[in-house]
Probable sugar-binding periplasmic protein
Amino acid sequence: MRKTSLRVLLASVALLVASCSGAAGGGGGGGASGEQLGAAPGKDDKLKLVVYSKFTDREFNAVTDAMKTFSKKYPNIEIDHQGNQDDDKLTQSIQAGNPPDVAISFYTDNLGNWCQSGAFQDLKPYVDRDKVDLNQLPEAVRQYTEFNGKRCAFPMLADAFGLYYNKDYFAAAGIAGPPKTMDELFEDAKKLTKFNPDGSIKVAGFIPTMPFYGNLAEVWAPSFGAKFLGPDGKSGLAGSPQWKEMFEFQKKLVDFYGKDKLEQFKSGLGDEYSADNGFQKGKLAIAYDGEYRTAFIADQAKDLNYGTAPAPMSASNASMYGGGLVTGTIIAIPKGVKNPGASWELVKHMALDTDVLVQIANGIHNLPSTLASLNSPNLQKSPQFQTFLDLYGSGKLVTKPSTAIGDAHLKAVNDFAEKWVAGSVPDLEAGLKQVDAQINDALAQKQGK
């Protein structure tokens, strides 16, 4: 649902860059390419606004209900919310000149592409005109909704990542609480692992391979203080002791299990977003995941006795305990919409209205993305969900860097991690140098260098 490979999208966006560069945004608004701002609709204006999102089922219904509150401000505007629309469909609709009036994406990975190409309109002129206070958004959230100083999206809920742990397994193993350091995570994983009589894994303390469930390089990196890009905007993984420490930790735990045993065990686990999720079924004692997992557990594994905690940190990064990765759903105005002023009003309503954000957060258990909504007395807070609220307000958030190559840099690192634990990379530093070259070549091509 929230993390997919977007290879096809990168090709689509490459075409979109060519078609959008220097072009006026048909009917435009947002100040892109010298367009005039769209005025807010009048109370009696009859309009239909089409909204694309990837929400489905329970989440789709909750978000649609929140959109209906827009009618209190504009009773004559009809909202046509179309779910299950992925980023590729969104990009294709903009290419074809038939975009939705408002676009909602689960991913920030491709924001750089959309901003640079003009596929998403620049919202700064609207922000300036309406005197929107961006300080109501945490700094890291402001970062992942703009690219190279261009604000072409707003957050609409956020995701933070931490640890989920099985309290019954911890008690049985005599472990008092969740690990705070990577060394503790390693030792706890060994204590919590159970083997069958034939030596196969019955319960894994913690699965260290990636990509797998919430195990992604971008989720792990904040625990080690590892950066995807340096100050020069280039990849420098091979020269980073933080990345080396991360990959060596990963390999050490894989070696404890044995990679063949681990792969066999993983093959028997259910899909990440199904009721057969390994943590929900008691097959994993510890797992990385986002706050939205609390909703899935409440719906699919009501009897699971679990706790949540911040991700553990490496010894050199201990001061960042209590923080971690933040990303989230974004909302924007595509190039070419017919009524940009009305689109902007809906964006503001969904992204900045405290009651709306709290309503959606309560419905789908995502984090509300403004500080006011975070502190609303109407926000429902289970003890497990409170962990992620604390993370969001910690001031220690780290986000993924937006680039003009979309998620290609993230995919390159995750692909490497998979090969590394499989034993097909004999030299860690040499392997990381190859990843650096791959990413930097892609960045240079995009920048025409």
Q: What stands out?
A: The domain at 7-158+328-375 is CATH 3.40.190.10 (D-Maltodextrin-Binding Protein; domain 2).
